[in-house]
């Protein structure tokens, strides 16, 4: 019985990522990222370096190039600002939102969106940590994403916070 309940719960969560027809399921009431985008200008140069680093890593591995998406840039930039404010590198937003919630908030299709986050002194250093074998590397090199958005922000203590959002505009 436990297995059936677990499978049913997993199916609902999986559907929530690709469907927008379940009102309230996994949606934040007020995306913190949208409000923070007005208060934080981010670091455009670091975001560009993050995007270029991911492009170089993908090219080195023979993967297709990703197209820059303004909507994904918006998601990534506002989340970088949120992380800088929280002082915590996490895919969860300060209001409990996830990348699917943030994609919905800006009207981006939710199937296939994924997010990488990190903190460090530079965007290239963050990309280098993502390229260590493991799940982050698999996301960077994945062939299911066609678009990318990046964002970086500096916190009051001088640390850089980085976010990359990959999607396929399905």
What does this structure look like?
There is one protein chain. The chain has 170 residues and is an alpha+beta fold. Helices cover 48% and strands 15% of the residues. The chain is built from seven helices and four strands; from the N terminus they run αααβααβααββ. A four-stranded mixed beta sheet has the order 1-3-4-2. Helix 2 packs across helix 4.
Low-confidence stretches: 1-30
Mean pLDDT value: 81
- So how many helices? 7
- Whole-number radius of gyration? 16 Å
Distance between the termini: 35 Å
Strand content: 5-15%
Note the overall shape. globular
Strand order of the largest sheet: 1-3-4-2
> How would you characterize the largest beta sheet?
4 strands, mixed
Kindly list the characteristics that best describe this protein.
170 residues; alpha+beta; four-stranded mixed beta sheet
Can I get a quick summary?
The chain is an alpha+beta fold.
What's the topology here?
Layout: H1 2-18, H2 32-39, H3 44-60, E1 67-68, H4 70-86, H5 99-106, E2 114-120, H6 123-130, H7 135-141, E3 147-154, E4 160-167
Parallel strand pairs: 1-3
Antiparallel strand pairs: 2-4, 3-4
Helix pairs in contact: 2-4, 3-6, 4-5
